[in-house]
Amino acid sequence: MKRFDMPDRHSVYDAPGPENVRSVIGLSSVGLLFLYLGLNALAPNNDVNIVLSIVQGTMATMVLFFYLPRAVYAICIASQDKQDYLIVGIVLGWLATDGQAWLTAIARLAGMPPTFLNSELFAIPKVIYIVAAVMHVIPRGAANGVIPRGNKAFAALCFAASVALSIVTLAVRPDPRPLIDMMPAWTRDVFQTGALPPHDGPPS
Length: 204
What we know:
Blueprint: H1 21-42, H2 45-76, H3 82-109, H4 114-117, H5 123-137, H6 152-172, H7 177-181, H8 185-188
Helix pairs in contact: 2-3, 3-5
């Protein structure tokens, strides 16, 4: 099968340099930590979460820009390439992340209205996440001949376990509010820029 080679949009990974997985994660984390602390010291937590949702959605859209063309092509030709399973899984995962991020930002801007939070829109990213998880596990050894080690039977077993857990949860309906009330104050708003009492208005 002829492979579909997308043009190389950037060459940072091919250029000689000290970049590696650990250094990229470290630099990204440090930058985001300073951004988060700076915003958190100046703005209420609700506003901080709006900003983070917007950044999350924008970065997810960036990932889709690079991966989506190949994923669409793989779906159109019904590719059997194991790597295409992972590419499609990556696209579906980030598509769900993208949708969830923007929906969260909208909900927080609107004051978390129950009618919007209970709408069908929030179910769509979750369904896409589930399909993405299957696409990541099915192609055994797609990444390097070893990873992932999962298979169809394991995916089916996990799905069955999730259904059973859902049924038990809906049947028992445990109340998490006592545990929420026990949360340390710093987890609600470490800089006290807009902390809300438990169950009072949108979560901070």
